[in-house]
Amino acid sequence: MTLSSFAILCCVVAAVRPLPQPSVTVDWSHHLITSKTTTTLQVVVNPLLERKSPVHDQIFESLANLEADYVRYVPWLPYPRLGVAELEPPSSQWLCTQLQGQSPNNWNASLTCQQGTIDKVHFASYGTPTGSCGNFTMGKCHADNTSSVVTKLCTGKQMCIIPVNSQTFGDPCSNVVKQFAVQVTCSIPQNHTYWDFSLLDPMMEDLMNATKNHTAIINFSTIPDWLYKTSSRIPYPDNPDRVDWSYTQGSELVDPTGKDLGDYYGRLVAWYTKGGFIDEYGVKHTSGYSFNISYWECLNEVESEHHNTPESYTMRYDEMVTGIRKIADPEHKITFVGLALGGHSHYDYYSYFLNKSNHQPEIPLDFMSYHFYSSTHSRTDPNAFEAFFPSADGFINDVKKIEGIRKSLSPKTRTTVDEIGVILPGDNNPKADMFPLIYWNAAGAMYAYIFGNLALQGIDVLGQSQLVGYPELPHLGLDPQFPSVALLNWTNGIGNARYWVLHMLIHNFQPGDILVETTLNGNTEAANPFCGKIINLQNLSLECDDQDATISKIDFASYGTPTGACGKYTIGQCNAKNSTDIVTKYCIGKKTCMIPATTEEFGDPCYGTVKYLVVQAECSKGGGMQPSVTPGWFSQGFIDVKTNSKKLLVINKEFNTKMMMLPPDAIGGDFVYVDGSTTGQEKTMSRKLDPKDPHLLLLPYSVGVIHYP
């Protein structure tokens, strides 16, 4: 920021209200807690992480540059081919392949005999075949030449490739999406499995290389559909890059003991840690990998994916741990993470899962995890992003309840909140409006705010979600994938403000720091007239400072979207017409009053919009103030034990520029910060604070760290 723009902003702030700036008081001798909190991120598999992606290299370079621990890596449900290692069940002597018809019909199918050659085609159909390997049947649509074409292409060969399209087989039913299925035997009898890591391995390699010398939490969360009881097999796209949200169906396992589930994950983990595994028929599969996987998380958002109950999930967790230990981790070196609840307030899951008596003997309860996402009513209004913080306050209070359960049942279990972010409304709608760049700052500020609060609760790991998402990318043939949760620019792989906030937290705060008593002081000097502002669902308090004074006049009142500043407030597009009457009822003739800013009190003048209550009032004598306001900013002091230095986290929670008074001993320190002064995608910046100036300017939704001199 230039000096001229700094001066302009200072003047604007000063002109709004000539009251003292908010300030912070830090008691460095009052130690609250020693931090256990590590800040990190989630990496979700999607096509931009593939090596063919134009931004692949920069994405993984950006990940490596974070130097983050506990990076959560999740190949997940919308991309079955990118996340499931055995998409088809073992088929004994039958060798099969099929294309599901969920993508344009122009794909190749392949068949390979591990021993001998393909000697007979028992079933082949291009059209609408149904069933699964060993039980295929022809549908109403069938190309009569399918078997002869496949026989010509494949018999007598160890491996063959079949172009699956209407040029190869003709078109047996126009305007119908066609499927393809083939079933053969090999000249040397053998049993067949369908383990295929060819699409999984490159991204796993790149993830492990980018997090080298750091820890990662691995979670191949999507279970093969054939392990569940369903009325029919669940199709998945032939195109590995196509989104399909319907793969995780069924709630009851085919094997009710869960042993097959545990063995699947045991073999999957062994592929990456033990150089390979022995399959269901005793055949060895060799990978050559010996990754050091320290943490494995068991499934994801379990209350919704396959509709697990607390009881069914706990059983499946136990069998996964048992299977992984049996096949891949007999030394018991892997630390396991359980739950991964999408709805963090499902308290019955914690109560059941953390009760040791509900588990098999020797099953560890090392870590539990859950998620939090905020939102708001508008993708495009920067003022609406202020709603992230009251939403975060609700989550922070819920964490206290979760911690109470954990401490009472399993106090040694650690916690990772491994998905924290914002999902804006309509995020996966290709026609959704693009949000302004300042959104990245607001979402990053919310994450930093949650860090500052949950470090006070002793939470171990906080993972911001997610490395990269994107809107519709027609030039790459990609459907939207939650663009508002991205930490990187999807066009170049460079970090946005959310990324740089995380980078700043990782490199400025560590477990072992001591959090100290920090008090925020707002603009509470009495004035006449005076103003108060509060967001929806909170109470607005007003008070006259003179003992003999009462509130005598309401100059302005609006519950809705008022704009302006004290002395210059104006009605916005949304306004409850009864605002003045209700405030008058609560306040006139009283020394103090408290007004609930709720739709129950005022009605709802604009459904789905974040509303504020703003009041300008006068006292009969003296002045008034808003004493019980939650400040629009946040600050927390930390002591770095390693260097015996002081540092102060500061966050602007509003779409307003703020001028704060620095603590006297912070003046002249070093300020490291991320703000939206130019593009909203700035790298972490730093400057020396003026040793003669006690003020600090905080631009909207900015986050910074003051290192004391």
Kindly describe this structure.
The chain is of the alpha/beta class. It folds into four domains: 93 residues, Immunoglobulin-like; 362 residues, TIM Barrel (Alpha-Beta Barrel); 92 residues, Jelly Rolls; 96 residues, Jelly Rolls (Sandwich). Strands 2-3-9-12-13-14-15-16 form an eight-stranded parallel β-barrel, surrounded by five helices. A seven-stranded antiparallel beta sheet has the order 1-17-24-25-30-27-28. Helix 11 runs parallel beside helix 12. It is elongated. The N terminus is likely disordered.
List the helices and strands and how they pair.
Elements: H1 3-16, E1 23-34, E2 38-44, H2 56-66, E3 71-74, H3 80-83, E4 95-99, E5 107-112, E6 118-127, H4 146-154, E7 159-164, H5 166-169, E8 179-186, H6 201-210, E9 216-218, H7 259-273, E10 276-278, E11 284-286, E12 295-297, H8 310-327, E13 335-341, H9 347-353, E14 367-374, H10 388-409, E15 414-422, H11 438-454, E16 461-465, H12 497-508, E17 514-521, E18 530-535, E19 539-544, E20 551-560, H13 579-587, E21 592-596, H14 599-602, E22 612-619, E23 624-625, E24 633-640, E25 645-652, E26 658-661, E27 670-674, E28 685-688, E29 695-698, E30 703-707
Parallel strand pairs: 2-3, 2-16, 3-9, 9-12, 12-13, 13-14, 14-15, 15-16
Antiparallel strand pairs: 1-17, 4-8, 5-7, 6-8, 10-11, 17-24, 18-22, 19-21, 19-23, 20-22, 24-25, 25-30, 26-29, 27-28, 27-30
Helix pairs in contact: 2-6, 7-8, 8-9, 10-11, 11-12
